[in-house]
Design a protein that fits this description.
The protein is α+β, with helices and mostly antiparallel strands. It has one domain (about 30-155). The chain has helices spanning about 1-25, 35-45, 55-60, 95-115, 115-125, 140-155, and strands at about 50-55, 70-75, 85-90, 125-130, 135-140. It has a 5-stranded antiparallel beta sheet, with helices on both faces. Strand 2 (about 70-75) and strand 3 form a beta hairpin. Helix 2 (about 35-45) packs antiparallel against helix 6 (about 140-155) and helix 4 runs antiparallel to helix 5 (about 115-125). The longest helix has 24 residues, at about 1-25. The radius of gyration is 22 Å and the shape is globular.
């Protein structure tokens, strides 16, 4: 009888551990927008110091509506450069990706005549989707920007 109880307890414990481990397997950590923004600001070379923009200013810049996102973190340079990054949490990543692609097309058109060297940065912009978050990074340091982003995601 004691053997049956011990065996039952062991089986129950093993089943519980399996459930816990399996439930964690499919779970991918969320992006912490503030942490990623800090990492981008400290690790990626931008032409100038970027300034955080919020609310309506960020919505206008990236052609977003309040319904398009749940959290928006954005840093931009002056109009002399096209350097910027945005971290956008959304329930509709496809919509946000489309709007950001449109933003990049407009930026490229605007900078092509004004500052052609700046327009080249747009061709190598980082535009990625991770779960419910879309990330855009425009910098002359795009290879490093992509590496910083990928390292951040790998460590999630």
């Amino acid at each position: 009888m004691k053997g049956i109880i011990k065996r039952s307890v062991c089986i129950a414990a093993a089943a519980a551990m399996t459930l816990v481990l399996c439930s964690a397997c499919g779970r991918i950590a969320e992006i912490d927008s503030t942490a990623l923004a800090d990492r981008l600001n400290s690790s990626v070379t931008f032409s100038e110091q970027l300034t955080e923009i919020e609310g309506t200013a960020a919505e206008k810049r990236f052609y977003l509506n309040p319904n398009d996102y749940t959290e928006l973190t954005a840093y931009v340079g002056t109009k002399a450069t096209c350097d910027e990054f945005a971290i956008i949490k959304t329930s509709s990543p496809d919509t946000v990706m489309t709007k950001l692609r449109g933003h990049l097309e407009i930026q490229k058109s605007n900078y092509s005549n004004y500052r052609p060297n700046e327009a080249q940065k747009i061709d190598s912009a980082v535009l990625e989707e991770y779960k419910d978050t879309v990330v855009l990074i425009v910098s002359g340091d795009s290879e490093n920007a992509a590496a910083v982003y990928e390292a951040y995601i790998r460590n999630k």
